[in-house]
C-alpha cells in the first residue's frame, strides 16, 4: 500500500466515524467508504472474490425473506442492510478490476427499466398486466439477442421457483392454460398416470409432471409456489414443536404413544392455534 493510499484510507476512516451527513446520499456514501476501508485493511475482506461471496449473498437473501415472513420490521431493516452490504461489496470488487462502477450499475438499471416500460415512457399501450409481461419478454429477447425465451432462466434457482419462472415466461407470450379449472383437470390426469406408472423411472417422471402442474396452478390462484411451500413448512415446524412439548408434558416417550394418541395431540395443537 502506498503512502498516499494510506492517507486516503485514514481520511475515509475519519469520515466514517464522524458520520456528519444526514441525507440519503451521505448515508449511502458512508456505506461505500466503509466497504472500501474493510477491503483495504481487513484480512478476511481482502481475500474475498465475487464467487466466494455468492453463497453468502444467497443466505442473506433467505434471511431477508424470513424477516418478511415474520413481519419483523426490526430484522427486516437489518437484513436489508446486509443485502446492501453485499451489493456494495460486489461493485467494489468490480471497480478494483476495472469492470464497472456504481454509476454504471445505476445507469444500466434505469436504462433497462425505461426500455422495458414503453407503456410508461413511450407510445406502447398496455391494457393489463398480461400485456406488460408480453412486452417485457419480447423486449428482453431483442435486447439480449437470445435464441429462446427461456435462455435467461437461471439454473441455480430452486427447481420449484425455476419451474414457476419458466411458466411465467411462456405465459407472457400467450402460451398458457385457458383457466385454473383446465389446470386442475390436467393435475387429475397426471395423478392417474402416476398411479399407473410401473418402474421407478416412470414414477419419477410422472411425479415431476404433477409438481410441474401444481406450480402451474399456483400461478392461476395468484401465489408463488416457493412462498406457499415455505409458509406451509414453517407452519408444520411450529405445530410439530408444539406437539413435541405436549408429548414431553405427558411424561410418556414417543414410543409409548399410539398413532391414535399422537393424532389426537396433533389435532389439539391445530385447535389451539385458533
Briefly note the structural class of the backbone. mainly alpha
Helical segment tally? 13
- Measured by DSSP, the beta-strand proportion falls in under 5%
The gross shape turns out to be extended
Please give the domain count.
3
Oligomer: single chain
> According to CATH, what is the topology of the largest domain?
Helix Hairpins
- CATH architecture call of the largest domain: Orthogonal Bundle
CATH superfamily of the largest domain: MazG-like
Q: Report the span from N to C terminus.
A: 63 Å
Can you count the beta strands? 0
Provide mean pLDDT, rounded. Answer: 89
Radius of gyration: 26 Å
Helix content: over 70%
What is the CATH C level class of the largest domain, in words?
A: Mainly Alpha
Order of helices and strands: HHHHHHHHHHHHH
Amino acid at each position: 500500500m502506498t503512502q498516499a493510499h494510506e492517507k486516503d484510507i485514514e481520511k475515509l476512516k475519519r469520515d466514517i466515524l464522524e458520520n456528519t451527513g444526514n441525507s440519503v446520499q451521505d448515508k449511502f456514501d458512508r456505506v461505500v467508504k466503509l466497504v472500501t476501508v474493510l477491503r483495504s485493511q481487513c484480512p478476511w475482506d481482502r481475500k474475498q472474490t465475487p464467487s466466494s461471496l455468492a453463497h453468502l449473498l444467497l443466505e442473506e437473501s433467505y434471511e431477508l425473506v424470513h424477516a418478511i415472513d415474520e413481519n419483523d420490521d426490526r430484522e427486516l431493516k437489518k437484513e436489508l442492510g446486509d443485502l446492501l452490504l453485499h451489493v456494495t461489496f460486489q461493485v467494489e470488487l468490480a471497480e478494483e478490476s476495472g469492470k464497472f462502477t456504481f454509476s454504471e450499475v445505476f445507469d444500466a438499471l434505469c436504462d433497462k427499466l425505461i426500455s422495458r416500460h414503453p407503456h410508461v415512457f413511450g407510445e406502447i399501450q398496455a391494457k393489463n398486466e398480461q400485456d406488460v409481461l408480453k412486452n417485457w419478454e419480447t423486449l428482453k429477447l431483442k435486447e439480449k439477442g437470445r435464441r429462446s425465451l427461456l435462455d435467461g432462466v437461471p439454473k441455480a434457482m430452486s427447481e420449484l421457483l425455476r419451474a414457476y419462472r419458466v411458466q411465467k415466461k411462456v405465459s407472457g407470450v400467450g402460451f398458457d392454460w385457458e383457466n385454473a379449472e383446465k389446470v386442475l383437470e390436467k393435475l387429475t390426469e397426471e395423478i392417474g398416470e402416476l398411479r399407473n406408472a410401473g418402474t421407478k423411472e416412470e414414477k419419477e417422471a410422472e411425479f415431476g409432471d404433477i409438481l410441474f402442474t401444481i406450480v402451474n396452478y399456483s400461478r392461476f390462484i395468484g401465489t408463488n409456489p416457493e412462498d406457499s411451500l415455505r409458509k406451509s413448512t414453517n407452519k408444520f415446524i411450529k405445530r410439530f414443536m408444539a406437539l413435541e412439548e405436549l408429548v414431553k408434558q405427558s411424561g410418556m416417550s414417543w414410543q409409548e404413544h399410539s398413532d391414535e394418541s399422537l393424532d389426537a395431540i396433533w389435532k389439539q395443537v391445530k385447535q389451539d392455534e385458533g
